Amino acid sequence: MSAAKRSPLLSWTVIAPIVGIVVLAFTWGRESETALVAVAAAALMATVLAAVHHAEVVAHRVGEPYGSLVLAVAVTVIEVALIVTVMASGGHDAETLARDTVFAAVMITTNGIVGISLLIGALKYGTTLFNPEGSGAALATVATLAVLGLVLPTFTTSAPGPEYTASQLVFAAVVSIVLYGLFVFTQTVRHRDFFLPITEAGPVTEETHADPPSGKTALLSLGMLMVALVGVVGLAKVESPAIKAGVDAAGFPASSVGVAIALLVLLPESIAAIRAARRERIQTSINLGYGSAMASIGLTIPAIAVASFFMDGPLLLGLGSTQIVLLGLTLVVSVLTVVPGRATRLQGGVHLALLAAYLFLAINP
C-alpha cells in the first residue's frame, strides 16, 4: 500500500539524473583517477537509462510519430555536445571525430537498430510488418543526407583532402537542415499515417497497451529528461579522456573513439526500438532507427559546421573507400528490406552482419 502511494519524485528514474548531476559537479575538472572514472561511468549508465524512461514517457504522451522525434532530437543534442567538447579538447583525431561519429551513428542505426528490431519482431511474430511508404521516404532522406555530408567531400576538388570549402560546407549544411525539416513536416503533418505502426489486424492508430501518462507526469518526465541530457553530456565529457586512453591502450585506430561515442549516445534509441519491436510496433522501431540516422546527419553536421568556424584545424568529413563500400551496401540492402513492407528474421540477420562487419573493420582496418 505504501509502495502504491510512493511519490514519483522518489522513483529511481528521478533520483538517477540528480545523482548524475551531483557526480558531474564532483568530478568536473578533477584528475582522472580510477575510482572517479568508475563512479562517473556508473552514474552515466544510470542517467542514460533514466533518460530512456523519461523520453518514452514523453513519447507515449505525444504519440507516434512525434515520440520518435523526441528521442531522435534528444540523441542529437547529446551527440553534438560530445563531438564539440571532444573536438575542442584537441588531439590527433579531432579533425575526423565528427565524420567518424556520424558515420558510426548511421551504421548503428540503419543496421543495428533496424536489424535487431526486425530480428526480434520476426522471432516473436513470424513476419514483421511496416509501412513501405514511410520507411522508404525516411531511407531516401537518410541516403541523400549521407551522400551529401559524408561521401561527396571525398570527391570534391576545390579543397585538398576529404573536406569541403567554406561555401560548400554552408551549402551542405543548409540543404541538410531543409531536407530534415521537410521530412519532419511530412512525418508529422502531411502524411502522418505513413509512419504509424501496423499489424496483421491493420493500422495502429493509438497505443493500446497502456493509458497515456497524465500531463503532470509528462511534464515531470520532460523536465527530468532535460536534466538527464545535461548529466549525460557532462559525464560523457568527464569519461572521454578515459575512452581515448582505453582506445590507445588497446591499439585501436583513432576512429574507434567516434564508434564509442555513437554507441553511447544511441543506447536510449536502441532500448526504445527493442521495446517497440517486442510490442509488434516495428514501424516505431524503424522510425527510431532512420530518424536517428537522419537527425545525426541533418542536424549534427550543420551544428559541427558552425562550430568549425570557431575552432582551429580542418573539418574532414569525407569517408574512405572501405567506409563508402559499407555505406553503399547498407543502402542497397536497406532498400531491399523496406520496399516489400514486410521482413523476416533473414533481413534482420543481414543487417546485423553488416553492423558486425563495420565494427570489426573499425577496430581492424
UniProtKB/TrEMBL annotation:
Domain of life: Bacteria
Membrane topology summary: Multi-pass membrane protein
GO cellular component: plasma membrane
Protein's UniProt keywords contain Transmembrane helix: yes
InterPro entries on file: Alkaline_pH_Ca-Antiporter, NaCa_Exmemb
Residues of the Sodium/calcium exchanger membrane region domain: 34-188, 221-363
GO-annotated molecular function: potassium:proton antiporter activity; sodium:proton antiporter activity
Protein localization: Membrane
Keywords: Membrane, Transmembrane, Transmembrane helix
Pfam families from the UniProt entry: Na_Ca_ex
Record field: transmembrane: 9-29, 35-54, 66-90, 102-123, 135-155, 167-185, 218-238, 250-267, 288-310, 316-339, 346-363
Protein name in the entry: Ca2+:H+ antiporter
Source organism of the structure: Glycomyces artemisiae
